[in-house]
Predict the 3D structure of the following.
Amino acid sequence: MSKALPSLGFAGIGLMGLPMCQRLLAAGYPLTVWNRSPDKCASLLAAGARLASHPAEL
């Protein structure tokens, strides 16, 4: 019996945040992301992340 992975939220998709989020997605975690500049989230959205419109949604 396998356990479902918890949903995670991540704020700040910069030099450290982007690779961390990429690894979380690759490991199968459901991920919601937010960044002041939403365009920086494009590659994560293409990989299956969800975009939050405000940090409170994380």
About this structure: The mean pLDDT is 96. Residues 4 and 29 are 9 Å apart (CA to CA). The radius of gyration is 11 Å. The chain has one domain: 8-51.
